[in-house]
Design goal:
156 residues, mainly alpha
Amino acid sequence: RNIVVLNTGISTEPLLNVTLREIYERTGVRVSAAHISRFGRNSDHIFEQTLGGHGDEHETSLIMVFAPERIRANKAAVDYGNVREAPDTTFYLPSVFNGDPESGIDFSKTGVRGDPTLATLEKGQIAVQAAGDDLVDGILKLYPDAIARGRNRAGQ
């Protein structure tokens, strides 16, 4: 059996990794995960914002592809909050969104971290293509015979 999980959350990565390892330990079923932080990186160069996160240029560009009716462009605003004040180190520093300007790196006036005003449909299409390419490439590398087995079952 070949099972793949597509994880489109950043904060869910550590918990999902532990869960998948526990599934493997308990059942012997190895489930692979593709994390959004690792796929589609070939499109990173098209994004212009200083840094990103929730509701940023990248995410908004993706929404323009999949659900443009969900975008409220009139509410789009640049919001880096205070996160740029965090020291640049190798350490993970947890943060949450907080509307209090005195909350340090947690501050975000809008609940966005980045610049959604830079988003475009074209950037979203490029990012989706890059992500799709990485996912297909990864599946073919992990499960090279899976495609052939699927075609055989379908009578192709």
